[in-house]
C-alpha cells in the first residue's frame, strides 16, 4: 500500500466505484503499455498516441495531477517541466498497483503524493484550486454510471482541483452507439465484452455531446473532439 495515501474508512464508505485489483494487478500494469497503449489504441480504438502525448508535452506543469495512470505511459514519456524538488505530481487512483507504478516511475524525477480514491467520490483528497495541469486519460469509461451526467462528480472534482489558470485534458471511449464514435469490428467486440465483464467498462451510455455538456457546466473554456472510438477534451477556466 502507498505510505502517503489516505486509507481512512470514510474515504471508502463514500466511494461509488469499486476497486479492481485483479484487472489492475502489478502484472497487468507491466503489460499495459504493450497490450493497451501500443496494440489496443492502434488496432481497436484508433487513438493517435502522438496526439495524446502532445497534450502532455504542451500542458504539463510543475504542479500536476494525474488521475488513473495505469502504467503512467504518457507522463513517463514527458520531459520534467522542473527540477526534481520543484516538480510536484499528485496521483489519484482507486487501485493500488497503478499508484505504485507511478511512484516507481517518478522516483528521482518529482515529489510525488499518492491518493487512493474513487474519482466519483467528492471531495477528492487532493488540493483545491491548486494544480496547473491535470490529466484524466481513459478513466471515465471505466467508472460506473449510465452516461456522463451520472459521472458528473468526476468532472466537478477536476474543476475543484484545477487552479484558475490551469489546464485539464483527457480522453474517454464513448459508446459504440454514439454517432461520434468510430468503431471497427474489433472495437465493437471488445466494448461489448468489456461492458459485460463485472467492473471493467461502463460506457454504453457515454455520448460525446453529453460529455461536452457536463464539461461546459464546470469549465468556461473547452474543446472537445472525436478521435477514433474516443472523445478528447481540453478544458480551462474552471467555473467557481
Ligand atoms: C484504462 S486505465 C487508463 C490509463 C491511462 N491514464 C491512459 O491514458 O491510458 C484506467 C485507470 O483508471 C483507474 N480507475 C478506474 N476506475 C477508477 C475510479 N473510479 N477512480 C479512480 N481511478 C480509477 C484504473 O485503476 C486505471 O489506472
TrEMBL record:
Gene3D superfamilies the UniProt entry points to: Vaccinia Virus protein VP39
InterPro entries from the UniProt entry: SAM-dependent_MTases_sf (IPR029063)
Name recorded for this polypeptide: Uncharacterized protein
Source superkingdom: Bacteria
Amino acid at each position: 500500500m502507498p505510505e502517503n495515501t489516505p486509507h481512512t474508512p470514510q474515504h471508502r464508505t463514500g466511494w461509488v466505484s469499486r476497486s479492481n485489483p485483479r484487472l489492475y494487478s502489478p502484472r497487468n500494469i507491466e503489460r499495459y503499455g504493450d497490450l493497451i497503449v501500443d496494440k489496443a489504441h492502434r488496432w481497436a480504438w484508433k487513438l493517435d498516441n502522438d496526439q495524446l502525448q502532445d497534450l502532455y508535452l504542451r500542458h504539463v506543469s510543475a504542479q500536476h495531477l494525474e488521475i488513473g495512470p495505469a502504467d503512467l505511459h504518457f507522463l513517463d514519456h514527458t520531459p520534467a517541466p522542473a527540477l526534481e524538488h520543484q516538480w510536484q505530481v499528485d496521483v489519484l487512483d482507486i487501485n493500488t498497483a497503478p499508484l505504485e507504478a507511478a511512484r516507481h516511475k517518478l522516483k528521482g524525477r518529482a515529489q510525488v503524493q499518492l491518493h487512493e480514491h474513487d474519482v466519483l467520490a467528492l471531495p477528492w483528497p487532493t488540493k483545491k484550486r491548486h494544480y496547473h495541469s491535470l490529466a484524466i486519460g481513459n478513466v471515465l469509461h471505466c467508472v460506473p454510471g449510465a452516461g456522463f451526467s451520472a459521472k458528473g462528480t468526476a468532472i466537478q472534482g477536476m474543476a475543484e482541483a484545477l487552479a484558475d489558470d490551469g489546464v485539464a485534458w483527457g480522453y474517454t471511449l464513448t459508446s459504440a452507439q454514439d454517432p461520434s464514435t468510430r468503431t471497427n469490428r474489433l472495437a465493437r467486440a471488445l466494448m461489448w465484452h468489456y461492458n459485460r465483464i463485472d467492473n471493467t467498462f461502463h460506457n454504453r451510455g457515454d455520448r460525446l455531446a453529453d460529455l461536452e455538456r457536463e464539461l461546459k457546466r464546470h469549465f468556461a473554456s473547452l474543446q472537445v473532439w472525436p478521435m477514433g472510438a474516443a472523445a478528447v477534451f481540453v478544458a480551462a477556466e474552471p467555473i467557481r
